[in-house]
Amino acid sequence: MTSGSVVAGRSITLTRDLGSVLAAREWLNQEIEPWTLLSPATQADVLVMASELVSNTIMHTRSVPHLMMSRRGDIVRIAVCDDGPGTPEVQPVDPHRVGGNGLRVVATWAHRWGVDPEPGGGKTVWFTVRTA
Predict the structure, then answer these.
(1) How far apart are the first and last CA of the chain?
(2) What is the largest CA-CA distance in the chain?
(3) For the chain: N or C, fewer Cβ within 10 A?
(4) Is the Cα torsion angle 20, 81, 60, 127 positive or negative in sign?
(5) If we measure between CA atoms, which residue out of 72, 67, 16 comes closest to residue 46?
(6) Element (H, E) at 76
(7) pLDDT tens per residue, range 6-32
(8) Where are the domains positioned within the chain?
(9) H or E element that contains 55
């Protein structure tokens, strides 16, 4: 496989409840292993980061999360689409806040991450990891 070839992506539309976070992890764990060549540690990190993106969609928008994964060469991309407004940002550390650190985890652990606005509204929040 050349570095530019794309392995067909996979996706799942989840429900809008916190049980979807577990469903997303279970689905990713089953689907990602056979074709992404991730180390066990990186695969575990991917599950945590994807959980953060799915839970953010459920908690901060009124949409159902749509989880996608794809691979191009040694880069695996995980993305969650929603139709909510706004752009998520890494929040400053606040020792008095219970939550709000999920994107900090993603920004720290991922190779890259970002937010792409969708035509007609909404956004795709994504991150990438390397297989090697």
Answers:
(1) 14
(2) 48
(3) C
(4) positive
(5) 67
(6) strand 75-82
(7) 556 889 999 999 899 999 999 999 988
(8) 6-92+106-130
(9) helix 40-60
| Number of residues that make up the chain | 132
Three-state DSSP string of 89-126: CCCCCCCCCCCCCHHHHHHHHCCEEEEEECCCCCEEEE
- Tokens matching residue 93: 């550390």
Handedness of CA 89, 95, 101, 106 (dihedral sign): positive
CA distance 19 to 1: 37
> Could you read off the pLDDT of 57-105 as tens digits, one per residue?
999 999 999 999 998 888 999 999 999 888 888 988 888 888 878 899 9
